[in-house]
Design brief:
The complex is a heterodimer of chains A (about 350) and B (about 550). Chain A has helices spanning about 5-20, 25-40, 50-70, 95-120, 125-130, 135-165, 175-200, 210-235, 240-265, 275-295, 320-325, 330-335; strands at about 75-80, 90-95. With about 350 residues, chain A is mainly alpha-helical. Chain A has 2 domains: about 5-205 and about 270-335, no CATH class; about 210-265. Chain A starts with a helix and ends in a 10-residue tail after the last helix. Chain B is of the alpha/beta class and about 550 residues long. Chain B has 3 domains: about 1-235, Rossmann fold (3-Layer(aba) Sandwich), CATH 3.40.50; about 240-280 and about 515-540, no CATH class; about 290-515, P-loop containing nucleotide triphosphate hydrolases (Rossmann fold), CATH 3.40.50. Chain B contains 21 helices and 19 strands. Chain B has helices spanning about 40-50, 50-55, 70-75, 75-80, 100-110, 115-130, 145-155, 175-190, 200-205, 230-235, 240-250, 260-265, 325-335, 355-360, 380-390, 400-405, 420-435, 450-465, 480-485, 515-520, 530-535, and strands spanning about 1-10, 20-25, 30-35, 60-65, 85, 160-165, 195-200, 210-215, 225-230, 290-295, 300-310, 315-320, 340-345, 350, 365, 440-445, 470-475, 490-495, 495-500. In chain B, the strands form 4 sheets. In chain B, strands 5-6-7-3-8-9 form a 6-stranded mixed beta sheet, with helices on both faces. In chain B, strands 15-16-17-12-18-19 form a 6-stranded mixed beta sheet, sandwiched between helices. Chain B has a 4-stranded antiparallel beta sheet with strand order 11-10-13-14, with helices on one face. In chain B, strand 16 (about 440-445), helix 18 and strand 17 form a beta-alpha-beta unit. The chains are: A mainly alpha (about 350), B alpha/beta (about 550). Chains A and B meet through helix 6 and helix 7 of A and helix 4, helix 5, helix 6 and helix 15 of B.
């Protein structure tokens, strides 16, 4: 399985590509690639489509409808709504629908980067990404991440339990019988988890307070950054000194965090080694970024941006940039199917 | 290994102590079963052993506890975690991470155990608990038994000398429970680990226990904690597993704890000819009729053409292994799931595709987790909420106060439901779904976590409702409950009905046969009463 940092780079590349491109062809390609990577690399979970794919369809439809009903631009009028209707009154054009759907595709592609990263990365590896000084915050985040699916499960359970008592969801007030047991049950489970963690010795070594000197230096560092930032904004003639001050203060804070992290006793079970698989995925990401955004003479970068206005025309497509996008597919080729889950 | 002297503990705000003057001594390497009715203080005692009580709970404690030379009250649970491994009832509630291996290593990472040693310890427990093949799996994909074994592994990774388990099999089906218990027996016999386990279903654990500690409930005449060899303690306890109850009734000595021990006595008894229990006569009419029901999750069919009919006043027990489709079937009946194909008819009216709220005006459905229902300020208000939902607040088919009296909840009518015991919460939820006086009751695992006394109370209540014409479809893993309560038994396997017959069908099933049926094969007897009547000891 690739290192969490490799996955992070892959997700960031998808994110940058998806958010910088405004061409439905590239967005669809990005979405499909992310879905294939999720299907191949993430743990199995039934026969359904990846969540990013289903979310994508919803966002595209909603985006098209919203823009189509509110933006009355474009030449190809499909039909008109009465002008007295607030916001949506006026002509509904094909161009506005396509523009809305294109924005929906961008959103869906951005979401797919988060979704796939979340699905392929074990929670434990996410904790590893947090600096050691914030280890406890990292544990809290990991608990929150495992709590969310549990909470969704309990939400369904409670909705069912209330429905069989004759409860119907008609308005906001009707959420009360669902929210109250969800909150109470969540609190009970949180207390139960805290009890279980204490029984497993959690917190036995980290109950130490930071020294007054460390706290004072941290305060000085934060003040330094704040003063430097204000000086940068208000005193143009002192900008160089302000930037130097901010860098020095930032260095002090980073040093303190590093030192604090070293004083927290903690070891790691998983020792990740950089493998060929990681290198290939990084290489694939580089290929995508270079082909899409580097000023290469043989790539028509204008093809990355498309506007259906004023009259709908086919979106442009640059083959080199399109092929470069397939660099994001490398994980699906080099990672074993369902490698995140050894059940096969 | 463990010495407790005159231990008294009171929870914050409680009027009476949860434990009073308890004395106990446990030797190294013992397998100790802690039993007693709900609310007797079993969990409290277990939590005293690692200092969770009083460090986590607060409250007043007096007396002396020594665990492997340590004082849990003075040193606290974090220090004791190296000596006492603790496993809770619901494995899912104690997981911090999402993968098997990571979850097991979590405690070691926080204890700053060096990586090399950590790997050795994790490997060790993975193999001890047969989890090596599951090491990379996400926890949510594991079965209940596998999850519980991961929780045990996470506790054992500190190499504790004592393993304490609070009802670890209460959420599991019989096969998964057996897997967990076999793992514990291996740990006890091979490694000499001291095991202290609290459990309601004594029949599951008695065969393995060296010693039984019985903590009486507040209402029992017997007030002292009983401790000793299981045979000796069970002689003084009223509610026991069927094989023990039969042994006591027939004066078998030493008291048998297992089927194997009981068979030695049963084989000596002359069985009168023609003694099978008469199968209950099939009732006429149809309250619920399910025809050719198919249901699929994400395109995967889990119910394949179910046909089932329930008559008015009939109690049908639905059994089957985890994942066989029992809960799915109930959810289809009440409209929470929409079948792919088939028809459901209630009292002659098709109800397929209707909203659950509409169906549940006539069908009471008690889900597995009754806590999901409870949110009102008082028990009485819970019942009124259901009436308001159905627009019946002015003409309640069952006056709430009268129903509470019937459920034995009149004294707690003004209490906050979530402050009540497991059994009481179960009955509040039952009240909340029956206050509309439904003609059909669907109960999904209603006896999970209930002691013998509470189970009997539930059966008595169901019998009363049956007499009034209410039909009951009861899903359970508890074969003894099925033997006691069923008019008819339906067994599901992989989404298909493989048996639909009189309860005697259980006697022939290697998976679902109750203890009495295993003791007297071929007789058709299922319960202690059947056997005593058949043997002529008791008049029918």
């Amino acid at each position: 399985m690739p290192d969490v940092r490799t996955w992070l780079l892959w997700a960031l590349t998808v994110l940058v590509t998806a958010s910088r491109v405004r061409n439905p062809l590239y967005s669809i390609l990005t979405l499909l690639i992310a879905a294939v990577v999720e299907l191949v690399c993430a743990p199995h979970r039934g026969a359904g489509l990846p969540s990013s794919f289903r979310f994508g369809v919803t966002v595209v439809v909603l985006g098209a409808l919203f823009n189509g009903l509110t933006a009355h631009l474009g030449d190809t009028v499909l039909f008109s709504l009465p002008a007295q209707l607030p916001l949506s009154g006026g002509p509904v054009t094909l161009e506005a629908l396509v523009y809305g759907a294109t924005n929906g595709l961008v959103l869906a592609a951005i979401f797919s980067s988060f979704s796939t990263f979340n699905r392929v990365t074990p929670v434990r590896d996410l904790v590893r990404l947090t600096p050691r000084a914030f280890h406890e915050a990292g544990v809290v985040i990991s608990i929150a991440l495992t709590f969310i699916p549990q909470m969704m499960y309990h939400l369904d359970e409670i909705r069912d339990a209330q429905a069989v008592r004759g409860h119907r969801m008609r308005g906001l007030r009707d959420w009360l019988p669902v929210i109250l047991p969800l909150l109470t049950g969540g609190l009970e489970r949180a207390i139960g988890l805290a009890e279980a963690m204490v029984a497993r010795g959690y917190g036995a070594l980290s109950n130490r307070r930071h020294s007054l000197r460390t706290q004072m230096f941290l305060l000085v560092g934060l003040m330094g950054v704040l003063v430097g930032w204000l000086a940068f904004l208000l005193l143009p003639q002192w900008r160089l000194a302000a930037v130097s001050g901010m860098i020095a203060s930032g260095g002090l804070i980073a040093g303190l965090l590093w030192q604090t992290g070293r004083s927290i006793p903690h070891t790691s079970y998983r020792m990740h080694r950089w493998t060929l698989c990681d290198s290939l995925i990084v290489l694939g990401c580089c290929v995508t970024l270079v082909s899409m955004f580097a000023p290469l003479p043989f790539v028509n970068r204008k093809a990355l941006y498309y506007s259906p206005y004023p009259r709908l025309s086919p979106p442009p497509f640059d083959a080199v940039a399109g092929v470069g996008l397939f660099g994001l597919l490398v994980p699906a080729i080099v990672v074993k199917r369902g490698a995140a889950d050894d059940r096969d | 290994m463990i010495e407790i002297e005159d231990l008294t503990y009171t929870y914050p705000g409680a009027h009476r102590p949860a434990l009073t003057g308890l004395n106990l001594r446990i030797s190294e390497g013992e397998f100790v079963l802690v039993a007693g009715p709900s609310g007797a203080g079993k969990s409290t005692l277990l939590r005293c052993l690692n200092g969770l009580v009083p460090h986590f709970t607060g409250g007043r404690i007096s007396g002396l506890i020594t665990v492997a030379g340590h004082d849990p009250v003075a040193e606290g649970p974090q220090v004791l975690s190296r000596i006492v491994g603790f496993v809770f009832q619901d494995p899912r509630s104690q997981f911090v991470l999402d993968r098997v291996e990571d979850e097991i290593a979590f405690g070691l990472e926080n204890a700053a155990i060096p990586s090399a040693e950590m790997r050795v310890r994790v490997e060790e427990v993975l193999h001890l608990l047969d989890l090596a093949a599951l090491r990379g799996r996400t926890l949510t994909t594991l079965s209940g038994g596998e999850q519980q074994r991961v929780a045990i592994a996470a506790a054992l990774v500190f190499r504790p000398r004592i393993l304490v388990l609070d009802e670890p099999t209460s959420q599991l089906d019989p096969q998964s429970a057996e897997d967990v218990l076999q793992a514990l027996v291996r740990l006890n016999q091979d490694l000499g680990l001291t095991i202290i386990l609290a459990e309601h279903r004594l029949e599951r654990v008695l065969p393995y226990a060296d010693r039984l500690v019985y903590i009486p409930g507040p209402t029992e005449s017997q007030r002292n904690v009983l401790t000793g060899p299981p045979q000796q303690v069970l002689q003084q306890v009223e509610l026991t597993p069927p094989v023990v109850a039969l042994g006591k009734a027939l004066g078998w000595t030493p008291l048998p704890l297992t089927i194997k021990e009981g068979r030695a006595f049963a084989a000596r008894l002359p069985l009168p000819p023609g003694t099978p229990r008469a199968a209950p006569s099939r009732r006429s009419g149809s309250r619920l009729h399910i025809r050719d029901l198919h249901f699929a999750y994400d395109g995967r069919e889990v119910l394949h053409g179910i046909d089932l009919q329930i008559a008015p006043g009939e109690l049908v027990v639905l059994m089957g292994r985890n994942g066989s489709g029992k809960t799915t079937l109930l959810k289809c009946v009440v409209g929470l799931l929409r079948p792919k194909h088939g028809e459901i008819v209630l009292d002659g009216h098709p109800i397929t595709g209707r909203h659950p709220a509409e169906i549940c005006r006539h069908v009471g459905y008690l889900p597995q987790e009754p806590d999901a229902m409870l949110f009102a300020d008082s028990v009485l208000e819970e019942l009124r909420v259901t009436l308001r939902n159905h627009g019946l607040q002015d003409t309640p088919p069952f006056p709430p106060a009268a129903l509470l009296a019937r459920l034995g909840l009149e004294e707690v009518a003004d209490s906050y439901p979530r402050d009540l015991s497991v059994g009481q919460r179960q009955r509040v939820a039952l009240g909340a779904v029956t206050v509309t006086r439904p003609g059909l009751l669907l109960l999904d695992e209603p006896t999970r976590g209930l002691d013998y006394q509470l189970k009997r109370q539930l059966i008595a209540l169901l019998r009363e409702w049956q007499a009034e014409g209410v039909s009951v479809l009861l899903v359970t893993h508890d074969v003894e409950l099925a033997a006691l309560a069923a008019d008819r038994v339906v067994i599901l396997s992989d989404g298909c009905v493989i048996a639909d017959d009189a309860p005697q069908v259980l006697a022939a099933s290697p998976l679902f046969a109750p203890q009495v049926a295993r003791l007297f094969p071929g007789t058709g007897w299922l319960t202690v009463d059947d056997a005593l009547t058949g043997l002529g000891v008791r008049q029918n």
